[in-house]
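User: Hi! I'm a student and our assignment asks us to look at how structure tokens line up with a sequence. Could you show me two examples?

Assistant: Happy to help. In each example below, the sequence comes first and the structure tokens follow. Example one:
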Amino acid sequence: MRFIILFFIYAYSFSIEVQKPKVYNGDENIAEWVMSEKLDGIRGYWTGKKFLTRKGKRIYAPKWFIKGLPNFELDGELWTKRDDFENIQNIIMDKTPSKDWEKITYNIFEVPNTKGNFFERLDKVKSWFKKYPNTHINIIEQVKIKDKEHLHNFLNEIISKKGEGIIVKDPKEPYHTGRSSHVLKVKKAQDMEGKVIGINISKKTSVLKSLVIKLKNGIIFNLGTGFTKEQRKDPPKIGEVITFKYFGLTKKGKPKFASFLHIRKD
């Protein structure tokens, strides 16, 4: 009986398999690929009936927000504006949707499990919303890459506007899930998630000195930068998952120059 219960918990927790980007290292041949801004919001996977997060958690969107969405799957980002992640997360992950959902837009970047190349898949959703217009829906603009200089200029423009980075994609590929070399993320710094397993408090000031973080591969390190004064007074709790940015790894696999970004609730 216990096995059956655990099986259903496992199945529910991993109920969707989404497309995930690998990291661009500069050596890839990206001729004839497309690029778009990587929005820093909450990923919303539309099943045709409801929204799920990247980990399969239910998103309780208002009825008016999902009215008119198609009966086929969509993948995109629930978002307000740049540099607004914590506000977005609080709105999206609230089980009782508030009026603040009026600030949210659904920014579509993929049409899962649809035949054809990337442009053909996007044409399917464009046709739908041409017939059923929705002011809260955007289809993320895809820009054809001329060369690597074009890519880096586009990235710098996004970063200058406090954007997160960009996604580059081979439009000739059919839809696929998981990580592949055909979808890449490009950033100035990389980001990663880890679980808080300890909190170091300063004896002199009684505020946060650093968090003890455990990565998925078991590596443990102290994270002490990137926190506001308020966050040092009220730091993330043990067991919570946080996102931090970093610049490469040491020989022992620890993140270099790691800096706290935010708590993840999705």
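Example two works the same way, sequence first and then tokens:
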Amino acid sequence: MKLDLGCGNRKREGFIGVDSSPDCGADVVHDLTQMPWPFDDASVDEVHSSHFLEHLDGAERMAFMDELYRVMKPGAKALIITPYWTSVGAIQDPTHKWPPIAEQSYFYFNAEARQRLNVAHYPIRCDFDLAFDGTLAPGMEQLPPPQQAYAKSHYFNTVFELRAVLTRR
């Protein structure tokens, strides 16, 4: 089973679309802030979620990740796409919630990182391996890698989207 969580009107082909709106053509109408989701434990092979997570606050993100972990099979991957924290897209939409999302936001969803950060007491149970990629602004991909790295760490609107791949441990 492959899920497109928060699919809106752009459900990914080959995926079961899940959204809270009955008007967007989702296959499953469900509010993803309401737990449990209508899927069995360890039943999902792949997840896609584009521009949904930024609409959740911190507590909702923790619950979302724990529920994501519950429904995913061990070794399953989830691609989560959000506006990058230094892009105007992260803050322009009044329905986006605080805080904006960076790579470091995901460290809380890895058990070893929670230990290193001394936050193992947080109410988070999930444990994902993490990998990241980003969508660069037009023209940035043509710069040499050292200049790209400098721009990413010093300039706004260099990276538009963060693409996080979470693998269930």
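Here is something you could point out in your write-up. DSSP finds three helices and seven strands in the chain.
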